[in-house]
Amino acid sequence: MDSDTLFSIGELSRRTGLTVKTIRFYSDEGIVPPTDRSPAGYRLYGPDALARLVLARTLRDLGLDLAAVRRVLDREASVPEVAEAHARALDVQIRMLRLRRAVLRAVARRAPDTMEMDLMHRLATLSRAERHRLVADFVDDAFDGLDGLDGLDANPEFTSLMRSAMPELPDDPAPEQVEAWVELAGLCQDPDFRAAIRRVAREQAEDSAREDAVALQGAIDRALRERADEAAAAGLLPASAGGVPLAGSLGGLYADAFRRADSGDLRRRLLARLRSTADPGAERYWRLPAAVNGWPGPAALAPLHPWFTAVSAVSGGPGR
């Protein structure tokens, strides 16, 4: 080959802007193999070395590893193919970096100890399928073996509602979304809370078998939906039970529903249902998936039970 068409490493360095050390490294790695040797034993490179070095530098600047660069230069893969594969890998890295940023900001907000911080990181980095599986296992445990037990059948609406509240942590979560997911995961693994939800599931199944209970519970549910915002906005507590306007609205709706109950036992059962519905732990469970998913939070129900029982007692209603 004509020596005038060959370049030394120094000439390639001047033409490409790469250091001699970098070109020598690429040469040793087979990215830019030498074409010949000078009489003194120095490596010489052909004209294609310029194009290979420029392309190698560009691909490396974009983050491709040497193996991918070599495949492109050896025409084992096209630039578009390698670029698409690398872009997909970067998407995964970007999602992980955003999640780590959210975890760090959540840590900064809460100042947890080392073990809590490790738990936050491990829970937050679960895959979507793993997050769903954790909640699904919790729901399965709540209803496991309930169908057919003592002639009961799980309430399908309640079951469907539980299974629909799956956490969908976004690719770029806010710190409060990470905090809500970690709290939800802890709640789902709390044996006391799991037992409480199973009790509610059994009560739902028992009441589903009673037409009178279903009708009366429907009246209670409507009362909650119609008046929950009003009661929560007023900051209802047992001490406020004597308020005349509220006693005539929410309290009246509840009292009417309970008066239509034909037995003290049924009244107690319905009041127990309201108690479980307004339980702070249960209410928190429904709020957490909403916080993770960025949904509007449900109306606060926890203050309503003590308020209703108190206003019923004042008015001589069913709370006595």
Task: Describe this structure in a few short sentences.
Helices cover 67% and strands 2% of the residues. With 320 residues, the chain is an all-alpha fold.
Features:
elongated; mainly alpha; 3-stranded antiparallel beta sheet; 3 strands; 16 helices; 320 residues
Largest sheet: 3 strands, antiparallel
Number of helices: 16
Structural class, by secondary structure, is mainly alpha
Q: Globular, elongated, flat, extended or rod-shaped: what is the shape?
A: elongated
User: Strand order, biggest sheet?
Assistant: 1-3-2
Compute the number of structural domains: 2
Q: Enumerate the spans where pLDDT stays under 50 for 5 or more consecutive residues.
A: 235-253, 300-305, 310-320
Q: What integer value in Å does the Rg equal?
A: 34 Å
Give the strand tally. Answer: 3
What amount of the residues lies in strands? under 5%
